[in-house]
Amino acid sequence: MTLHDAAQAGTAWLLGDRTARDSKRLSLNPLAHIDALGLAMIVFGPYGWSKKLPLDVTQFRRRPKLSLTFVYLVGPLMNLLLVFFFWWLYFFAPTWIGRGVETIAVEEWRVYLQYCVIVNLMMGMIHLLPLYPLDGWFVVRGLVSDRNRPWFERNEYYGLLLVLILMITPIGQWALAHIYPLAAQIVMNLFSL
């Protein structure tokens, strides 16, 4: 989550909005991004979240709506970059660390890298869902015409309600139980290349 949020804060800053930087969110320190309740949910349940990124659309230098859309798209793109980075490490790091290292240590490292790929792939997929407050909602909302924008603003809290229902009911557990194997299968196909 740290790189996801820091990438969004950095993009906002590059596009002219200093709000996230001024509130110390342009940081690789995980403590800058932790939300207490979101962290507790990670510890006690399969879901969690970070602090909402503070943004001020009026500070973007050009095309505020498009800039905001791009900021929210960068988070899932960061997760995708991390997928490829960990996938690359999976194949090439064992040759670097494999000399003189126990085979079991190399295998544990590779299992850890597979887990990193799966988690980042799932985070990227989930964040692209067009449900408020996920990044996908803001991407879609930024791409719709100004005429349809009020409908999105009126109905965004239904998305929040749906996300909450998915998080606390067996429906969400069922969905997670089906998304995780899909992500794992994609990853295993990547690793078999």
From TrEMBL:
Keyword Ribosomal protein included in the entry's annotation: no
- Which residue windows are transmembrane per the record? 31-49, 70-92, 112-132, 157-180
Keyword Cell membrane found: yes
Cofactor(s) of this protein: Zn(2+)
Recorded superkingdom: Bacteria
Q: Which UniProt keywords apply?
A: Cell membrane, Hydrolase, Membrane, Metal-binding, Metalloprotease, Protease, Transmembrane, Transmembrane helix, Zinc
Q: How does it sit in the membrane?
A: Multi-pass membrane protein
User: A GO molecular function for this record?
Assistant: metallopeptidase activity
Gene Ontology biological process terms in this record = proteolysis
Gene Ontology CC annotation, any one: plasma membrane
Subcellular compartments:
Cell membrane
Q: Which family is this protein grouped under?
A: Belongs to the peptidase M50B family.
| Protein name (database record) | Site-2 protease family protein
